[in-house]
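Today's session is about reading a structure prediction critically. Students often jump straight to the picture, but the first step is always the sequence itself: look for stretches that repeat, for charged clusters, for runs of hydrophobic residues. Only then move on to the predicted structure, which in these notes is written as discrete structure tokens rather than atom positions. Here is the chain we will use throughout the hour.
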Amino acid sequence: MRRLIAMGAIALLVLAVAVPLTSASTTPVTRHVDGSVVVLEPAFNRTWLARFEVRTTPSGAVQFGYFELYVIGGAPAGEIHEFTVDHVNYYKTPSGAQGATLQMQECKIVPPSQPCFSSSYQVSDGSTVRQGDTLMGQLGWTVQSGNISIYSTGGQNGQ
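Below is the predicted structure for this chain, in token form.
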């Protein structure tokens, strides 16, 4: 009987040590898209400051996120857009860079405010393939300065 109790106690100790270590190494994976960039919009000769941070599940369901645009050069100076990020679609660009399309509700709030509407913005993290970052590159917008990052955290061994 004593042997049975001792073996049971040892088994419980092994489980108590093994379970927390196992669960700590398999934390949930999250994807991140963030940046603070100055972007030139040549079609309207405007310069924008774009700031954003989005955290999602691997499938793109948003856990946290914001996106803001401010006109800092060109007309009308002081124009501000705020966005609610609904979903993110991740992809790789033809060069192999990490890319993301942010599906959002866009609201022009200054000046004058307008009703919100659906929009999508594409961003890429060119640093992964030694290229420049892009924001709305399909429309000819060029990043003048700043940084865009797309990365994952959590999972097995922090991958």
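Discussion point for the tutorial: The chain is about 15% helix and 55% strand.
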